[in-house]
């Protein structure tokens, strides 16, 4: 009798499990797998507690007042949209303004800056032309090993900062260059070249031990401060704004800005300028080259870069001369690089030999006139 009751209970339990599974099959729970980079900005909250609802209302009120303030100050709404339209998580849209402000503060700190006249004050066996030759060669090395552009910019930054504190003889200049690129590669690259690769690229002029030893000297001289902002750091943000009214030539203006920035690294005179200023100057000149009859600067660019057109005049003039081969005309690595089709042949684009002085007038004054 007891056995029959147990069997009946097991049968009823099995029947319930079967009915439950059938109900689940009829109404399956739909789950969507989400890639981490595709996660939405807002969390999937079903119900918001009263306290959180009040917080949201307060935030909405603050945002509304900010929009009203921007409208009163005549700040273009498009400048806000440029950040919010980004789908690239690396652009850090919610924090872009704060990050940029932090980088602008960091770039001016002495520990992140080379001396503007280190060849005259520190180096006795080097000349500006020797530095230019080294930079031009490092551009070729970066191309040979397919290094990202950030690696190249960091390399030049490390070289200039190291030479600002340590005098060397000219025979060691190439060693400083490859050792700095080794450090920058470790900092930026997923799979950096090996020490042996950098020895090979110098035709084994330097041994592995010499490269490693110089690497240690550079790290100590820089006090391991390796994350300095470069021209490329600011160029990413500035070109996004520069492309807003250049919809038909976005890639062209991006490559042209990169070309002009790399040309500026060749010139020792440009060492004294902040990376953000050089980046803004490259954007100014690139827009002028593509559309010479249109004013290359506007209120939105001024807001994003924090530079007026007049602030850029001297620096733009130097890069313009470099573009026309009036300066550093014997160096060809950068030019040959940007003559390639993959860079839209931007190094072959014609440009007016003169920059109109009217383009460097204050936008507000020009608008009132």
From TrEMBL:
<dbReference type="InterPro" id="IPR048258">
    <property type="entry name" value="Cyclins_cyclin-box"/>
</dbReference>
<dbReference type="InterPro" id="IPR046965">
    <property type="entry name" value="Cyclin_A/B-like"/>
</dbReference>
<dbReference type="InterPro" id="IPR036915">
    <property type="entry name" value="Cyclin-like_sf"/>
</dbReference>
<keyword id="KW-0132">Cell division</keyword>
<dbReference type="Pfam" id="PF00134">
    <property type="entry name" value="Cyclin_N"/>
</dbReference>
<dbReference type="InterPro" id="IPR013763">
    <property type="entry name" value="Cyclin-like_dom"/>
</dbReference>
<dbReference type="InterPro" id="IPR004367">
    <property type="entry name" value="Cyclin_C-dom"/>
</dbReference>
<dbReference type="GO" id="GO:0016538">
    <property type="term" value="F:cyclin-dependent protein serine/threonine kinase regulator activity"/>
</dbReference>
<dbReference type="GO" id="GO:0044772">
    <property type="term" value="P:mitotic cell cycle phase transition"/>
</dbReference>
<dbReference type="Pfam" id="PF02984">
    <property type="entry name" value="Cyclin_C"/>
</dbReference>
<protein>
    <recommendedName>
        <fullName>Cyclin N-terminal domain-containing protein</fullName>
    </recommendedName>
</protein>
<comment type="similarity">
    <text>Belongs to the cyclin family. Cyclin AB subfamily.</text>
</comment>
<dbReference type="InterPro" id="IPR006671">
    <property type="entry name" value="Cyclin_N"/>
</dbReference>
<feature type="domain" description="Cyclin C-terminal">
    <location>
        <begin position="229"/>
        <end position="352"/>
    </location>
</feature>
<keyword id="KW-0131">Cell cycle</keyword>
<dbReference type="GO" id="GO:0051301">
    <property type="term" value="P:cell division"/>
</dbReference>
<keyword id="KW-0195">Cyclin</keyword>
<feature type="domain" description="Cyclin-like">
    <location>
        <begin position="136"/>
        <end position="220"/>
    </location>
</feature>
<dbReference type="InterPro" id="IPR039361">
    <property type="entry name" value="Cyclin"/>
</dbReference>
<feature type="domain" description="Cyclin-like">
    <location>
        <begin position="233"/>
        <end position="321"/>
    </location>
</feature>
